[in-house]
Design brief:
539 residues; four-stranded mixed β-sheet; alpha/beta; 28% helix; 17 strands
């Protein structure tokens, strides 16, 4: 394996900054809190961290509505604190990736404010998608597209002279106007932004909505205008996955390669790419485009051996076939946590927890890179019973529906103790975490997990250590083995077998009740005559 390409088999830990650790006592996590938590992450064994947006923002979508791309929101710290974080991470050998948001900005961004003050057809408006309305007096939106977070994808403005005016496009919320990447000035501005953070020591970027940026040049009506809102996914073929977007990633890759040539440190681009097939996904990770793109199909697969095998096979064929490696993910800040998704609403000792642990070890045994979402290593379930009055997700504000809202996976982490705030904040009396933590979070607190060698934290740590120590893991290929129904098994190299019980195989003593990560004989009847370094029981 070429160790120079650190990212090809790296394990990156996603830090949702406002929910990781609060150093100032205001109930919101911050960059100094992330710096304080670095030794914990180093001990866990990850190769790097990905920081959610910490830029100045009105926080209509918790930082994904960026008002200034080259500064730090005071709620999270300042540029000096960012520099301290990067320096501390580098001393520990931990890479730092930033979340960059090129599809849209905040309605408070200076360029959008200037567009509102300018006239139709002006250069200021050309940076966004402004268009005249349809129907009498332009009172209807320019097309029938709906936003992913609910409602029309267009908002009408009042012109500087007070008359009803043009409409602007926003594929998420009205507070997040979409950039017009057909305007060269937009591309030049993001080139400046990339270089600003690379010059400050960033090791790369997670690219938000990487299949977006370009829209169909004629902005025509969609045959299924509510598809994005219905699926909460980027499926409108007129708004996403336009061919011109690949030129952006070729340029960004060239910028990263330029910095790598200067000092030998490889910079990484990992894209949030939501496209219909693995084959289309593979186009984003060609040798001159993004280094990685999250493969979400594993995250979306039902708990079924055949379904997992199909997803992995397609990824290995279509994505790894490009010469890149697959980037696996099971959790993130937009999805229901695996413990809940696989089995149960609360608690961590039953079916959902067993399946979540098994899925994690399966992911770590696959060829390629992997991303872990904060709290995943603690086997945290989703918080599904947050009161309506504390919900902050714009999906809830725009639709009134709790379906697929994201607050439940963003509740601040429990670090210690038996009651909220569980060490997350040391604020004055009355200062609470920005989202309330349930009492049962005590069962998942980090101090308890570290002290219990049977905990999920130790499972992850042991899995990461094995992944680093066993040369068969990381890059490479896999070979499927024939097994009894309900068991998924494959080899990595000549002498390592990974076998996962999806719930139908008998688990005889002494395997039943032992840690999910086990070396030694595979259970009789599962893989006759074989041994397994990883026998994983998800039943």
């Amino acid at each position: 394996m070429n160790r120079h390409h650190w990212w090809r088999d790296a394990v990156i830990y996603q830090v949702y900054v406002r929910s990781f650790l609060d150093s100032t006592g205001d109930g919101i996590g911050d960059l100094a809190g992330v710096r304080a938590g670095l030794p914990y992450l180093k001990k866990l064994g990850v190769d790097g961290i990905w920081l959610s947006p910490f830029y100045p923002s009105p926080q209509h979508d918790h930082g994904y509505d960026v008002a200034d791309y080259t500064d730090v929101d005071p709620v999270f710290g300042d540029l000096a604190e960012f520099d301290l974080l990067v320096d501390a991470a580098r001393r520990l050998g931990v890479k730092v990736l930033l979340d960059i948001v090129p599809n849209h900005c905040s309605s408070e961004h200076p360029w959008f404010r200037a567009a509102l003050d300018a006239a139709p057809g002006s250069p200021e408006r050309a940076r966004f998608h402004f268009a005249d309305g349809r129907g009498p007096h332009g009172a209807e939106p320019p097309n029938n597209w709906h936003a992913m977070f609910g409602g029309p994808a267009w908002t009408r403005i009042t012109e500087p002279d007070g008359r009803p005016g043009q409409w602007y496009l926003h594929m998420f919320t009205p507070e997040q106007p979409d950039w017009n990447w057909r305007e060269p000035e937009v591309a030049a501005e993001f080139d400046r932004i990339l270089r600003f953070w690379l010059d400050r020591g960033a090791d790369g970027f997670r690219v938000d909505v990487a299949a977006g940026l370009y829209k169909h040049p004629e902005l025509p009506d969609s045959p299924d205008p509510e598809a994005d809102a219905r699926t909460r996914d980027s499926v409108n073929p007129l708004a996403w996955n336009q061919p011109e977007v690949h030129e952006v990633w070729r340029h960004w890759r060239a910028v990263c390669e330029e910095y790598t040539a200067r000092d030998g440190r490889e910079r990484l681009l990992v894209g949030e790419v939501s496209v219909p097939t693995a084959r289309e996904h593979a186009r984003y990770v060609r040798a001159d485009e993004l280094h990685q793109a999250f493969f979400f199909d594993l995250l979306g697969a039902p708990w079924d051996a055949d379904a997992f095998r199909k997803v992995v096979s397609e990824a290995m064929q279509d994505i790894a076939g490009t010469g890149s490696t697959v980037t696996w993910v099971l959790n993130n800040h937009d999805q229901v946590r695996t413990v809940t998704r696989y089995g149960e609403p609360t608690g961590g000792s039953g079916l959902g927890a067993a399946r979540a642990r098994a899925a994690a070890l399966l992911m770590l045994a696959l060829p390629g890179a992997a991303y872990i979402y904060q709290g995943e290593e603690l086997c945290l379930p989703e918080v599904v019973d947050l009161p309506d009055d504390v919900l902050t997700d714009p999906i809830f504000r725009r639709t009134g529906s709790r379906a697929r809202i994201r607050d439940g996976c963003r509740v601040p982490l429990p670090w210690s103790g038996q009651a909220s705030p569980f060490g997350f904040t040391s604020g004055a009396e009355g200062v609470r975490p920005w989202l309330p933590q349930p009492e049962w979070f005590a069962e998942h607190a980090t101090d308890r997990a570290l002290a219990d060698t049977r905990s999920s934290w130790h499972l992850y740590r042991d899995g990461l250590q094995l992944r680093a120590a066993l040369t068969q893991l990381g890059e490479g290929t896999l070979h499927w083995l024939d097994t009894q129904p309900g068991v998924l098994a494959f080899t990595r190299g000549d002498d390592l077998v990974c076998a996962v019980n999806f719930g139908t195989a008998p688990v005889p003593a002494p395997v039943a009740g032992t840690p999910l990560l086990a070396s030694g004989p595979c259970p009789p009847g599962v893989l006759p005559g074989s041994t397994a370094a990883w026998w994983i029981d998800g039943s």
